[in-house]
Amino acid sequence: MDYRVSPGLYAAGNPDAGSPVLVSANYKMSFDRLRDVLPKRSAWILVLDTNGINVWCAAGEGTFGTEEIVRRVSETGLERIVSHRTLVVPQLGAPGVSAHEVRAQCGFRVEYGPVRAADLPAFLDGCGPASAEMRQVRFDARDRAVLIPVELVGEGKHALLLAAAFALAGGFGPSGYSLAGVRTAGLGASAVVLGSFVGAAVLGPLLLPWLPGRAFSVKGAVLGLLFAAGLAVAGAPGPADSWLGPVPWALIVPALSSFVVMLFTGATTFTSLSGVLREMRFAVPLQIAGVVAGFGLWVAGRFVGGGIPG
Amino acid sequence: MRYIEGVTTLAFDPGRCNGCGMCAKVCPHAVFRMEERRAVLADRDACMECGACARNCEPGAIRVRAGVGCAGGVLAGLLAGTGPTCGCSGGSDARG
Question: Taking CB atoms and an 8 Å limit, are A272 and B88 in contact across chains?
Answer without folding.
Answer: no
